[in-house]
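Q: Is it fine to ask for two folds in a single conversation?
A: Yes, each is treated on its own. Send the first.
Q: Here.
A: Result:
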Amino acid sequence: MNPQKQKTNGELTTAYNEYAEALLRYCYHKTHSKDDAQEIVHDTFVNAQEYLEKGNEVENLKAFLFRIANNIIVDRSRKHKNQKRCEIPLESLNEKGVHPESMYGMDLIKRKIEAENILKDVQKTEGADYLLFLLRYIDGLKPTEIAAITGLTPNHVSVRLHRMLKKASWVAKNGNGENKGRAR
């Protein structure tokens, strides 16, 4: 094995140990499928290895990996644009004897639905900001790393994150976000 390939494999092994879990969470949030997320993470590291073995240099490997993963997700969503996720109506579950409210407790279900509604409202209003929100607060990336992934400036990322937090706080206080008023 040549020294360049050995160095590349070592870098990617270290990167995998450090970033695979965060990449998997990011991909899962984007695809809503554990299997798809795992496949995308695998493809991300394969693509990164091919790129590095060609002798290309990468300044920030973490941002580079997230960029590759994001590009793969976008490519897949374009391919499967017309396919819709299958959702099972609650009534059909009840007909089959499955009662989710009795399995988990109504309070837990209500809190989960409330949290999902807030995130859905935030996601609907500012799709690009929602991505920034996920990268920062779910995956723990710094604004400079997010800037490298998205192509924005670090300052722009910080400002948009601040506005997003303000809006999420407003939605949480004032209901489900159907009111058209601005977050103050």
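Q: Second one now.
A: Result:
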Amino acid sequence: MVDRLYINNYKSLVDFELTNIPNFCVFAGANGTGKSNIFEALQFLAMSVAYVGSGYDKPNTIEDSEEAIENYFLSSVYDAFGGIECFLNKRIAKSEIIKPTNKRPKIEITLLVEQNTIGLQYLFYAKSNGDTFIGAISHEGTDFWEYPPDENERAKRIKAHTEFQVGFNRLFVDKSNVVRSKNTGNIKLSPDASNLGKVLDRILQNSEIKEEVLNWLSLLIPEFENIKIEKGLDGDSKFYIKEKHTETWFSADLISDGTKAILALLTVVYQSDEPQFICIEEPENGLNPYVQKQMVEFFRLACENFGHTIWLNTHSQTIVKELEPQELVLIDKVEGRTIAKQFSSNYNMHGLDMDQAWLSNALGGGVPW
């Protein structure tokens, strides 16, 4: 369970807070309400943790010279997300950025998991030429890299940061705009699943995982018989699907978008037997209602068996229908700010299925269109 998620001034997320979020959780709401911003902010945090922990020299204090600040400024993260104008809340005027340090707006993203806090604060600085850049990065009110003097506490915090950074995955199949740092190897699925063949090739080497993957594919894809991976002339790993009643092996460009999506969803879960934090955008795309229903159960089992945290955002009535009240977070936007509504496990549904309550707005929290 995630004890707390707090995001402030990241796009439409202003003073946004969720508490006691189950490992399997679904964010549902209308288009444009900010569901993707939540996942993007977590992706921003994961990349920041990776760069801050990379070990290069940093100034001793936040108030060091502009040149020293720029030396440790996370230019790679900054550029990957399009610059300040793309991720700073639009209601913050540039004039506010040049106020005294203690009055400047900050982007803050804090994640509390099992009493381990993973969080960053970004303080804005104005350069003499009028440009603006992010200057300070801190954790729990102190410089991020200043770990506790106690050896056990220090090891605990470093472990929490490392596990989050390594285990975080954001997936939106075939959507290149979510790629901020492309994975081209065989260890971790790229956010757009563009390296699906390589990661599949690796995980299918494990006979137990292969058996489980084949069982799920047989359940979810009519006429499915087998899958194989071959190296192409370019050295890349390419997968092929064989159906019953034919000797033909179908390459990736001949299979349906839904089949590719199923493979990607299975792969991101099985790519590591260590706990992962997986955020999946619109997993219903290309999937029929039966498959959507089965995938909800698959994700639940993955959370139980592997210790994964799996969060989805969706517009799917079918997915919402399969949820328990505590697994649903409704997302709405009011006056430009993303807001959320959570539900307890004993929430009174008055005899309605979850999807009926959602579509009729009986739950409050905004209409789904």
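Q: Anything structural to flag on that second result?
A: Two points. The longest strand covers residues 116-126. The chain has a mean pLDDT of 84.
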